């Protein structure tokens, strides 16, 4: 699966609480950075420019 996002819209939808991100800790020894993830299929329609799981409009 792949998705091309409208990143400014994705940030705005996150601020509005419409996208839930999961914080994932880095499990490697000595690592200090964590990362965030979410499921592409849960993205609001307004954030998706193109995706392999949707028909182009």
Secondary structure elements and their pairing?
Layout: E1 3-5, H1 7-15, E2 22-24, E3 35-37, E4 48-51
Throw out a few tags for this protein.
alpha+beta; elongated; single chain; 57 residues
Structural class based on helices, strands and sheet pairing: alpha+beta
Helix content class: 10-25%
**Rg over alpha carbons:** 14 Å
Mean pLDDT over the residues: 89
Q: Give the H and E element order.
A: EHEEE
Q: What can you see in these coordinates?
A:
By secondary structure, this protein is of the alpha+beta class. The chain has one domain (3-51). Helices cover 16% and strands 23% of the residues. The strands form two sheets. The protein has a two-stranded antiparallel ribbon with strand order 1-4. A two-stranded antiparallel ribbon has the order 2-3.
Short description:
The chain has one helix spanning 7-15; strands at 3-5, 22-24, 35-37, 48-51.
């Amino acid at each position: 699966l792949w998705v091309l996002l409208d990143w400014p819209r994705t940030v705005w939808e996150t601020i509005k609480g419409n996208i839930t991100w999961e914080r994932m800790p880095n499990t490697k020894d000595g690592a200090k950075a964590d990362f965030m993830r979410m499921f592409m299929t849960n993205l609001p329609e307004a954030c998706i420019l193109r995706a392999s799981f949707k028909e182009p409009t």
